[in-house]
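Shift notes (night). Ran GH10 domain-containing protein while the centrifuge was going.
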Amino acid sequence: MIEWQLMQFSLLIHSLQAATANASMVSIRSASLQPFSAEQWSQHREDRIQLIRKRFVNVHVSDSSGARVVGAKVAVHQMSRDFPFGSAISKTILGNKPYQDWFKKRFNAAVFENELKWYATEPAPGKEDYALADQLLQFVQSSDAVARGHNIFWEDPKYTPWWVKNLTSADQLRAAVAGRIESLLSRYKGDFVHWDVSNEMLHFDFYESRLGRNATTDFFRTAKRADPLATLFLNDFNVVEVCDDLSSSADSYVSRLRQLADAGVTFEGIGLEAHFAKPNIPYVRAVLDKLGTLRLPIWLTEVDISNALDPKTQAAYLEEVLREGFAHPSVDGIMLWTAMDASAACYQMCLTDGNFTNLPAGDVVDRLLGEWQTREVLGATNDRGSFNFSAFLGEYKLSVTYLNSSAEGTFSLARSDDTKHITIRLQP
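Came back to this:
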């Protein structure tokens, strides 16, 4: 196993001189390479969070004549978060009010664990059943959360509907996949912000081996026509989890994206499942840096930690993964793979027990959610009539009071390097 560390590289420049009219020669006296300390690594993450997940705000308060008001009371309350942070859910949440309340309190994004997969929605040819998916979508929408569509096709034959595997000709299979896209995306057009079009295609090739190398290209084109507002993703495992799976290295992912792009596919999103045993955080950052050069949104789509580890170790590793993902400028959302089944079990990692009492991993999630939002900011305008603060991106409610005058309003904080300036004029 290769051990990765984030290194600091420093140079002492001896001289700099022009070598040609268009180039310069640099003479280096010495160079050094040193690992970051844990404290430096953590501070680097916090600095990036301030830069990409928060924004400075300056509230300017004046009276009806335009004069600055000193000492006006300012109260700011966050109403919603900008960064999508969610969890997988399954049919067990339906009709389960304690589960629903627990979910709504924490998450603004959801993905269905199995209920949208082809084997679930069409278990036999022509026998479509979207009842569970419809109910889950209704719950998500009533929770003011966004939903990821997972998935249209799964290249692993193990999870391909039995009747699809039994189709005897390419024409039959081609008709079946066309029907799948049409049925699924016409029903849910505009309802899901993402679709994982081809799941785990770096490891498996059920459809391409039967329909040809252009099969995935056709899937993406057809899906885009059917639901043009959805962001279309590839999704795969072991890209950030390990460095010894050559099928899904960052280079393999980039190469596959370029092959499909050359065939005319417009790619919009990179899905990284993130099913970890022991995460190698420097490697995670290196992969995110490399994939980030593609300028596509990256989502960690199925984050969990192996249940081969004890709950406290799971929680510690989960915290490292979540902090690294949240601090990376190319990561646009994080989904936990923590749907709970009827026996209060999860795929690898649960956040709570069956009574919705936090397990160690749940404590981590709650603590980070608390860190990554600006619940309330209270203060007063200074001698220039201004009040300054830094807040996480999202939607806010603002109120200003001074003597017998008051004003209220709302504002949004989107990602930007600029300070957000808000002007409030109090009326008598």
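The chain has a mean pLDDT of 93. The two ends are 70 Å apart (CA to CA).
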